[in-house]
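Session log. Operator J.P. requested a structure for one protein chain; no other inputs attached. Running the standard single-chain path with token output.
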Amino acid sequence: MTYEAVRALTLFDGLSDDQVRQLLAVGDELDFVVGQELFTEAQPAADWWLLLEGALVLTRHVGHEETVMGKMATPGQWAGGFQAWDAHGIYTATGRGDSAGRLVRVPSVRLRELADAWFPFGVHMISGLMNTVRSIEARSREREALVALGTLAAGLAHEINNPASAATRAVDALAQTCDDLLSSLTTLAKGSITAEQFVQLDELRREVEAHAAVSAPLELADLEDELSGWLTDHGVEREWEVASHLAAAGVDTAWCERALDVLGEGPLPAGLEWIASSLSTSALLSEVKESTRRISDLVAAVRTYSQLDRASVQRVDLTDGLESTLVMLGHKLSGVTVVRDYAADVPEIEATAGELNQVWTNLIDNAVDAMSGEGTLRVSTRALADSVVVEIEDDGGGMPDDVRAHAFEPFFTTKDVGQGTGLGLDLSRRIVVERHGGEITVESEPGRTVFTVVLPAQVTTGR
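Structure written below.
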């Protein structure tokens, strides 16, 4: 009965009766029912499916939704078999029974054997077509990677812009502060202040610089109000500005009374303005120093992340790579609490640091996306007898079973085009497993997803 059904299909008009029998001999006939899943999206396309009766609905995950892509309802329609032409061929959709029926299933490897024997030129044409499709897909991935690189660059620019802007503002303010400093010194010089009084005033200034600054906003505001009233009572102009600088340095009215005892009422305003300008100058210089240090740290993090100035295979401190990756993704971590749990006994390993940093980028970026930018991210390392372990854990919604099952398969993603890092988990798996001889696994449940990477302490990277 199967032979007559297949022989009647126009799909096989070019085959002889003997060839049709050979095809059926290497395959088998299957009955299916409504809802039965026969082949699954992103799984290796190890079988060729030929519809004889009934209907299949074809679905594919787009984002987080399952979308109907079409139906197989006409006898002679077929699906799969791509591994006959491409060792990495996968199913592009999931096929489920829409109405009960029958199929012929032929293993891809046997289909290739028959095709090679019957029409070798056609096989070459199909293989070329498959390679072209893979090339286009690879170029698409490269484009996504470039988009992701642009996103990382934009994030880094944002991180650098903050300290750069702070340094610029501080330098602009320094010009006015230096003018005020010189002006107050000139006023003191024109007054009746003695050298001994100036030395005592400078000693008071040094006490202030060594004093703990006030950081609590409410406490600082109360101190400013108290100082402003005292300065007004003693004839200090611009008392609000002087009070602001003195309060930020932790000065109180008791200290001001000591300054009054040293200078007297006449030189007091100029003396306090000089001290306030000195304190402001020191604070602004500290801000410039901290801002430029931050920029230097960011540049160092980029160099560590990219590894452009280092050998391909080297001794790698995994903590450095994880930290530089967190810096690179800092623009995405503003609403995330990062918990670092680095074991002190983790040894350096031989690895390609730049490739591992790409893996950390992908895993951390996925974790942040899973939490929608808010939650707790735990990054940990620990040592085993002959290997090291890195874990990336998030408290997001978790991965559905069907997503987790395909997470490390080629070209599988739940993200829209242009989102993510452009580095799929399949490529992360290749870097860890094939390049470094390690292992990468995932455990997931609602509220907890953990990616675990195990790397041997001594790695001979593959090529």
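Operator note: Confidence is low (pLDDT under 50) at residues 416-423, 459-463.
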